[in-house]
Structures are given as structure tokens and as C-alpha cells.
Amino acid sequence: MSERILKVGLVQQTVADNNKATNWNKSAEQIAKLAAQGAECILLQELHSTLYFCQEEDTNAFDLAEPIPGPATDFFGELAEKHNIVLVTSLFEKRGSGLYHNTAVVFDRSKEIAGKYRKMHIPDDPGFYEKFYFTPGDMGFEPIQTSVGKLGVLVCWDQWYPEAARLMAMKGADLLFYPTAIGWDMTDTDDERARQHGAWHTIQRAHAVANSVPVIVANRAGFEPSPVKGDPGIKFWGQSFIAGPQGELLAQAGVDEETTLLVDLDMSRTEQVKRIWPYFRDRRIDAYEDLTKRWRD
User: Fold this and answer.
1) CA angle 276, 278, 283 (to 5 degrees)
2) If you average pLDDT over residues 137-160, what whole number do you get?
3) Coil, strand, or helix at residue 292?
4) Residue 264: which CATH number?
5) With 80 as the cut, is the pLDDT of residue 47 above it?
6) With pLDDT > 70 as the criterion, what percentage of the chain qualifies?
């Protein structure tokens, strides 16, 4: 079986304010660098246009949302066309008055939108009040067809759910992408931080293993203070990474650095791995009906 190499990159960056133009241009510089190195497909982190506004519940933050198509999709679509790349972006979508989503948008070497995915699993925890802002996605788990293959795009909290990764893989996703914004509560101990990061790393690499597909994860970096008085803010833990179809770690960024990762993926390995580890052949689908229940009493 001949090799089929795909150069995949990601951008890890910090966000200092809500100036979209500044943040977009910052991303554009890194996209240009990756494209110059031959990247064919590039992933940006979750909600990269602004600060992570979900640290509080504030109706004024809805002003940050925009329609699709809109200014963000215009900007990043032009970059995808200019650099002849597949580009996976993330934005706060205003679908209609009072209706908002956390949405990933994919471009395929063109200004035109190749597809989008609306975040399905919405957290609601201290410092991550996303249910206040985002309606759960209604587009299902559908891979997006591009010139480099079918992309299974999921978003942040989705990354903890094996069902989401499995359903994308079952529909033929060649790769899984996770734009992410996750970090530590500043009151967490060092031991707790290590446990949380270890769990995050393990669960996503497990999705690669269980589905025999590469996983690409772009997480934001840096500290973002909370607008809530007395709240310690969030230290985003960075450490974006790319793993192969057996969960093998191919590249990983540091905690605080603004950086890019670029990896040569041999896409033919997915087929080879699936022949050796035929999980889909041996799944007992006749015994899994209770997975659609909330709980088993």
C-alpha cells in the first residue's frame, strides 16, 4: 500500500482582548507560516476571535457573535483561497435573534464554506458558563468532505465523549479535529492540574485508538482574567497536539507558548491499522441498544 502524505498543521495562540481584527491577523500570520512550510490542512483553536467570554454570564457578550456568512468567514475564507489550504476555524455564531451556537467552519481552498459543525455538548461549570450562550448543535455528527478527506470536526467539550468520535468515524471521517479552549482553575493544586491534563490527553488519544484515525487538537494558551470580582480566572493549558491512528503522539506544544505544529501524516496507515485492529468488525451492535438511554436502572 503506497504512502499518502498529508501535511497537517495547527495554531496555538493567546488572546489578550476582544479586538477581532488583531486576533484574526495574528492567526493569519501563523497560517501563512504553516502554508509556506507546505501545510495543506490547518486547525485554529476554539473561539479564536475573542477572549473566552464564558467565564461569566453577561448579555452584552452576545454582541461578539456574528452570522454565517459574516466578517469572520469572509476573512478566513480569503486566507484559505490565498494559501490553497483546507482551514478549520471556530466562531460565536448568531443564527438568529436570541439563538446562538459555538460553531466550527471549514473552508476547502476557497472562499466558499465547505461545511460547518455546531458544538453538540455544552458545558455549564464555574468559569465555563457556555449553556448561557450556546444552543446545542442540531446538525448531528456529520464529517465534512474536503479535498484532503472527510474531516470529523468536533469542539472542546465534545472531546470527552467517545460516542461523538465513534459516530464521526462510522460516517467515514478520515481525521478528527478538536478546536479547544480548556484550562485550569487557578485554585487547583499542581496534582489536580496534572490529573486533569492527563485525562484530557488520554481520552483524545483513546479516540484515535478506538477509531484508528489521527486526532488533531488546537488549544488556546495563556492566562485570561475573569471579569467577575474575586474569581481567579483561567490559565489555559495549551499543549496542543497531533496523534496518529494508534494514539501515538506525533507533536505537542508547550503550555504558555504561541506556536504552530506541523506533521506529515501517512493517511494510508489508517487503512493498515484498521486491517490489524478491526474494531468496527467486532462491535456487538446487537447488544448496545441501552447506549441511547440516559442511565440504566
Assistant:
1) 160
2) 97
3) helix
4) 3.60.110.10
5) yes
6) 100
Structural domain count, the chain: 1
Spatial CA neighbour of 152 closest among 160, 144, 163: 144
Beta pairing class for 175-180 and 215-219? parallel
Angle value at C-alpha 91, between 75 and 12, nearest 5 degrees = 85
* Candidate list 7, 94, 116, 119, residue with the active-site label: 119
Mean pLDDT value of segment 48-63? 97
The residue annotated as part of the active site, out of 7, 26, 40, 46, is 46
- Let me know how many helices (H) and strands (E) the chain has, helices first: 6, 15
Q: Is residue 233 part of a domain?
A: yes
The amino acid occupying position 117 is Y
Examine residue 297 and state whether it is found in any structural domain, yes or no: no
Q: 211 in a domain, yes or no?
A: yes
Does the active-site annotation cover 156? yes
| 185-235 pLDDT per residue, tens | 888 899 999 999 999 999 999 999 999 999 999 999 999 999 988 888 999
**Is there a domain that residue 57 lies in?**
yes
Residue of 94, 156, 224, 235 with catalytic role: 156
Structural domain for 260, as ranges: 5-292
Catalytic site residue 54? no
